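Quick one: Terminase from Paratissierella segnis, C-alpha cells please.
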Amino acid sequence: MAKARIGNQNPTQSVILPYKKSLYQNAIDTYELSKRTAQEWQINLTKHIYAVNSDGLWTHTKFGYSLPRRNGKNEVVVIREMEGLQRGEQILHTAHRTTTSHTAWERLCRLLDKAGIEYNSLKATGRERVELLETGGRVEFRTRTTLGGLGEGFDLLVIDEAQEYTTDQESALKYTVTDSKNPQTIMCGTPPTPLSSGTVFVNFRNNTLSGKVENAGWAEWGIEDEVKDIRDRELWYLCNPSIGTIFTERSIQDEIGEDELDFMIQRLGLWIKYNQKSAISENEWKELQVNALPTLKGKLYVGIKYGNDGTNVAMSIAVRTLSGKIFVEAIDCQSVRNGNGWIVNFLKNADVATVVIDGASGQNILAKEMKDFGLKEPNLPTVKEIIIANSLWEQGIYQQSICHNDQPSLTQVVTNCDKRLIGSNGGFGYKSQFEDMDISLMDSAMLAHWACNEFKPKKKQKIRY
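--- reply ---
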C-alpha cells in the first residue's frame, strides 16, 4: 500500500542562525510521553528554538514562525512549555483572545495529564496558571492588554496570535523577560489579513528576513505572491506541512469560497505587501500637519464622495505646494437632502483643474448638474482606480508627501478608520470605526489627492518662428 502523501516539512522561507548544539531532544521526549508524535517540521522548529551558544544561552533570543491555519503551530509552543516547566522556567503565554489563551491552558493541562506529570492548576478565565511544585516552573496564561505583564518577570514570553500583536502591547510585555538570565520570546501566528490590528509581527518578519536584527530566527510556510489558481494542489502541499496528517485535501477543498485573497492568506500563507495597520494613527497624521498655510502652486483638484449609505456627500480639495507636497483640505460634508447647490457654487467660483466624483448614489446626478452649468466634465473613477487612489493615500501618509492644516473633522475621521477589502485581488479601502463618523469625508480628500497625483496640468504649447 502506497504511503500517504504529506505536506512540505521545510519552511518556504527562513532565517536560522548558525549553531552547534541544541537541547531539543528532552523537550521532544517529554512531549511524546503524552502519546503524541511530533511531526518532522515541529521537531526541526523545536531544534532551532532550543539551539544554544558556547555559553549555554539561547542562540535565538527571539524566534517567530508563521503557518496557515490548523497546521498545529501551537504544538511547538506546548513542546517548549512542557519542558520549560520541568527546568523551572517562569513562562508567560499571551493571546489576543481570552478563548485562545484558555484553549492553550487546556491543551497544556491535557498533555501533562497524558504524560503523567503532576502539576497544580488555576482555572480563572483570562488568568489561568499551570505550576510544577517540584521545580517551581509555571506558565501564566493572559489575554493581551496594554498593561498586561507590567511589574512581573519571566524567562519565556509566548506571543500567540502574533498577527494581532500591537506596538502598545509590545511596550508593555517586552520588558517582562529583561531580567531573566536566559530570556527568550516566541511569536507564532498566521499572516495578517487587511483587518489585523498588529504590526509587530510584520515588522519582526521583515527585519529578520533582511538581517536587521540580532539573535533572531524566523520560519514560514507560504507563497510569496498572489496566485491565479488557488485550487493548485501542489501549492496546498507546499504551504501546509500537516496536510496528510492533521487534515486532508478534501478539507481544503471545502474551504474555498468567493474570497480568494482570504484563502491565499489563511491557507496558502500569503503575506500581503501593503501595510496591515487597521487605522491611521494620530501620530502618523499629526506628523503631516503644517503650522501655517504653505505656498500653493497651481489649480485645485476636487474630490467628491457620496456616502455608501446615500446619506451624506463630502467635498475636499488638494493642491501642490511649492515644496512638492500635496496639501489636502476638507470643504464640507452635508446631507444629500441639501442638494448639490453648495458643491456647484464652489466649483463655479474656484480655479479647478479636475473634479473626481465617486458614489453611485449621486455621482451621475451631480455630473449632469455640472454639465447644465457649463462646468468641465468630471472624472468618474472605476473600482480599479479607487483601489489605486487608496494605495496612493496610504503611501502619501507613510512617505509624508501629504500635508494638512489639522481640521478637527478630517483629523477625527482619518485617525479612527479601519481597512476593508475591495475586489478580489488584494485591493483595500477604508471604513470608519464608529457609526457616527462618516468616512466619506476622508474618501473625498483621498480622491482629491489621487487627482492631484494622476492628472497633470497640460503645458501650453509654445510655437517659435
